[in-house]
Amino acid sequence: MGPPANPLAPGNLPMVNRARAATTVESATEQRPDHALMLAVRGGELDALGELFERHHGRLFGFLVKLTGDRTAAEDISQIVFQRMLKYRHTYRDDGSFTAWMYHLARRCAADHFRRASAAPHAIDPSALHDHADDAPHAAHHATTRDDHALLHAALARLDHGDREVLLLSRFQELSFAEVAGILECSVGAAKVRAHRAMHALRDIYFNLQSTRTGQGKIP
């Protein structure tokens, strides 16, 4: 199952003027940065959200797969995130970061999803992570072979949910610590401490799995 279809396409979003959506949206939005597009959405140019979806839904889906370990849930949550962007567009700030706002909404939507399901996010299935290995450039030096990638994914899956979350935001999604702090609703210093602690935990798990593999010939 791949990333979700665009829930904001004209056929799926009645509130968008279909005649207007039939024109070339690309010509109106192709050079605008994310922030400008979201400000346009806030101002009533709803078609601009379709461009933001096309730019970001792949990375958002990959983030949610890693965060939840559930591809079906990640697909559902991805669509809800963009629906909430539309619903709460008036809350987007003039000095805001679109990607930070998107991941903030994603965390809230994921929490709501599991609250409704009366279940906590579970450990990640390494096979689900494999499809999104390219989303983790900072981890590349830990994984030069396929086996090393599998070890990295297994280690990430075994992290505490909070540690996994801060690493995904700061290292895998490459957000600044100021953005991560805003998403996690903590100070920049606290975000750095959490990320540092999480990285140490990941390394410990990784090397422990590596030692186990060397001794037993396979990942447990």
Overview of the molecule:
The protein is mainly alpha-helical and 220 residues long. It folds into two domains: 1-121, Rna Polymerase Sigma Factor, Chain: A (Orthogonal Bundle); 123-220, Arc Repressor Mutant, subunit A. 65% of the residues lie in helices and 0% in strands. It has helices at 18-22, 25-29, 34-42, 48-68, 71-87, 98-116, 126-130, 146-158, 161-172, 177-184, 188-216. Helix 3 (34-42) packs across helix 4 (48-68). The two termini are 26 Å apart. Residues 13-29 and 122-144 have low confidence and may be disordered.
- Inertia-based shape: elongated
- Poorly predicted tracts of residues: 13-29, 122-144
CATH architectural name of the largest domain: Orthogonal Bundle
Please count the helical segments.
11
The CATH topology of the largest domain is given as: Rna Polymerase Sigma Factor, Chain: A
Distance between the termini: 26 Å
Query: Can you give the mean pLDDT?
Result: 77
Structure classification: mainly alpha
Number of strands: 0
- Our estimate of the beta-strand percent is under 5%
Helical proportion, percent range: 55-70%
Gyration radius (Cα, Å) is 19 Å
The biggest sheet amounts to: none
